[in-house]
Design a protein that fits this description.
By secondary structure, the protein is α+β, with helices and mostly antiparallel strands. The chain is built from three helices and six strands; from the N terminus they run ααββαββββ.
């Protein structure tokens, strides 16, 4: 399997874990030093910070009800790869269901034979 195909598979596994609201499996897709930039948060997060925020959200009733990735593109640069895609998420938060259309960049790094996400940047889509 090519490196690009491996990254596509790693991205698909990450999205599937997120889509199924499988917290444990989702967070195993990230390296211990991962960082996160979300347009909904005022500052970047570390992995521990994101996990704490996720737990807080879940305590408040948050749940991912579904997620679909489309238009995925991979650029492999040695042991680092950049995955860009459009992401449609269906979730429950604040007592209501929400459908979000966003764009995301995930940087993967090959570690111990696996492609792990080491940076994720989620942004609102550009409107035409």
């Amino acid at each position: 399997m090519s490196a690009a195909a491996e990254v596509h598979a790693a991205a698909a596994a990450l999205v599937e874990a997120f889509a199924s609201n499988d917290t444990a499996r989702y967070f195993t897709c990230f390296s211990a030093d991962a960082s996160f930039v979300f347009h909904t948060q005022p500052q970047p997060l570390t992995l521990a910070g994101y996990q704490a925020l996720w737990q807080q959200w879940q305590a408040e009733g948050f749940a991912v009800l579904g997620c679909r990735s489309s238009n995925g593109q991979v650029s492999v640069l040695g042991d680092v790869a950049i995955f860009i895609h459009d992401v449609a998420t269906h979730l429950r938060a604040d007592g209501a269901e929400h459908h979000l259309e966003e764009r995301e960049t995930i940087v993967f790094r090959r570690q111990s034979g696996r492609w792990l996400a080491c940076h994720e940047h989620l942004s609102a889509p550009t409107l035409n």
